[in-house]
User: What shape does this take?
Amino acid sequence: MLLVIDVGNSNNVIGLFSGKTLLSHWRIRTEWNRTADEYWVLFKEFILSNNVELDKIDDIVIACVVPSLLPVLQEMARKYFSNEPMIVGPGIKTGISILYRNPAEVGADRIVNSVAAFEKYGGPLIIVDFGTATTFDVVSKKGEYLGGVIFPGVQISLEALFKNTAKLPRIDMLVPEKVIGKSTVESIRSGAVHGFAGMIENLVKQIKKELGQNAHVVATGGIVDWIASKTSVIDTLDPFLTLDGLRIIYDKNHPEKL
Assistant: This one.
């Protein structure tokens, strides 16, 4: 079995694969000061709760955008799984060409999403990931990573609004019924959902114009349903795109295990 770990700025998303089948997945908050032993306790409980024996896990692959956590997870893998995990980064086969001016600047999660989307849907593609940042990644018909857009995410924007105003409240994540809010909470929800939906529609329009052709739009991320319900430009919702991408990249680097 393959354990895949996507370390984001807000959450770690973990998946357990048997071949190409995602058996289980879970999400934990990204805590920058957790130790390897603490991560082991969490991972062990999740894995055992899914009736999987720990010694059935053969390999581990990690994509990490929090540099301080990478050595912690590597230590956990070596200490408790007797495994040297594969890290998505320079030198790893992805099957796509990265046309960024400096390819090393592209976040591992963005590459993983692009690999998965191209493998599953072909190109050209626009991948929208609703995470701590809202990212747009563009892949050509040939499977070239062309670049993209980075914008503050919905949750971080709402948190900034709460922290930097005297009277505006912190709100929960609910989709508003109407655009015109009848209270402060409703107005903030409307601004978050409809404002981000409008931003997505405009950026998708501009990217397609710059490409000079249509492109399949795939959306993923923890709050993808929250925004996607208010825009018509998203063609496919794929909440497990990153987990699939980690498995696909692992397979590309271990063809002997296919």
